[in-house]
């Protein structure tokens, strides 16, 4: 009888053990399911926090219950939906404000460019006015030097600058005479034309800047008087501009020039007509 009771007790204990093991297994599965759900909720929370941080970087502490916050969120969603129905879609509003900001930016850039163009136009007008005044001054100075140099030979002349058509007209009256009788350069003799040309070149030198000044065979058709006056004028101009180099080429004899450390004469040997010599050596005459 005791053995039978013991067996019954063992069977009952086994039954209880099996029952509690099944309970334990069910609780473990429930714990795993809750842990997976917790992990999913934590990930969802992190995503929500990240989205909220984009709107408000600083997290706001609140003591309001979640139910109250959910109610407020729902009211805000309804309000947003109502505003979208009245004013349009949010994306369209964002595009509108983006386009408006871009328009304002471009308008400011255009305004700045127009201001720059206005300033540049003003500067160009000032430069054009200065250029016109300089051109007028140089023209008057060239005329003055031309008439002054012609007067050394008793000539009178006229220079007409046509800046619009970019032409220059020169007239010269040899000797004493009425200025109304000024003649075109083509009507002058060879010597008169050569002397007038020298005066014209010297007047151009007076208004231009260059380190070298050269003249070739300027006195070919001049008589002795015109040649002497021309050389005196050129030497006078050269002596006042020692920072420049003057080169004069002439077939005439220059032995009558004054002796000066600033004047150097290089004379080409006479060609030998009987030989075919291609070299042309120079030798110094001073």
TrEMBL record:
Record's keyword annotation contains Coiled coil: yes
Biased composition (Basic and acidic residues): 1-12
Gene3D superfamilies (UniProt xref): P-loop containing nucleotide triphosphate hydrolases
Principal subcellular localisation of the protein: nucleus
Entry keywords, A to Z: ATP-binding, Chromosome, Coiled coil, DNA damage, DNA recombination, DNA repair, Nucleotide-binding, Nucleus
Subcellular localization: Chromosome; Nucleus
Start and end residues of each stretch annotated as Disordered: 1-26
GO molecular function, one term: single-stranded DNA binding
GO biological process, one term: double-strand break repair via homologous recombination
Cellular component terms (Gene Ontology): nucleus; site of double-strand break; Smc5-Smc6 complex
Family: Belongs to the SMC family. SMC6 subfamily.
Name this protein carries in UniProt: Structural maintenance of chromosomes protein 6
Lineage: Eukaryota, Metazoa, Chordata, Craniata, Vertebrata
